Amino acid sequence: MTESTGDLAAHDGLRPASDVPSLALLLTQAERSLRRQLDPPLAEAGLTFEHWRIMTVLLARPGARMSAIADEAVLPAATLTRHMDHLVERAMVVRRIDPGDKRRVVAALSPMGEELALRLRAVERVVEAAIAQGLGSARFATLGHELSLIPHLFD
């Protein structure tokens, strides 16, 4: 049995769970693989992977509060502020006082930011399509669904 066959056996439940790498390790390795595919087009646009996470949150939830953006983009508040400052300076994001709560700030993509986010999202979809092809579309859909459940298991 080759090393790669042994690795596949671990993922198919043929080896004891103690022989399978930790979920944290597997998720980090998967993120690294995604970053390797997305970093070149992001760098070309002058963005980092962290900027992209913020922009994808704002693409899905325009007008989100900063605290929600930090939570969804998985960034500490201070780090979010630094990255948001960069995106605002580049005219990718606009920040406003929340009309419902003057103590809070909300953000949204600017028209230029939305245009760029949509172009980058198309690149991300190509990467996702390659993953879906490698896993099979049903397994890819299941993976996305299962991963979306994990954060809610600890609420």
Explain what the structure shows.
The chain has 155 residues and is mainly alpha-helical. It has a domain at 48-155: Winged helix-like DNA-binding domain superfamily/Winged helix DNA-binding domain (Arc Repressor Mutant, subunit A, Orthogonal Bundle), CATH 1.10.10.10. 66% of the residues lie in helices and 8% in strands. It has seven helices and three strands. The chain has a three-stranded antiparallel beta sheet. The longest helix has 25 residues, at 111-135. The model is unreliable at 1-6 (pLDDT under 50). This is HTH marR-type domain-containing protein. Residues 20-155 form the HTH marR-type domain. Keywords: DNA-binding, Transcription, Transcription regulation. It comes from Nocardioides endophyticus.
Number of strands: 3
Helix content: 55-70%
CATH superfamily of the domain at 48-155: Winged helix-like DNA-binding domain superfamily/Winged helix DNA-binding domain
Cα shape: globular
Largest sheet: 3 strands, antiparallel
Question: What structural class is derived from the secondary structure elements?
Answer: mainly alpha
Which regions contain 5 or more consecutive residues with pLDDT less than 50? 1-6
The top-level CATH class of the domain at 48-155 is Mainly Alpha
The third-level CATH topology of the domain at 48-155 is Arc Repressor Mutant, subunit A
Provide a count of the helices: 7
Order of helices and strands: HHHEHHEEHH
Q: Write down the overall mean pLDDT.
A: 90
Please state the CA-atom Rg, rounded to the nearest Å: 19 Å
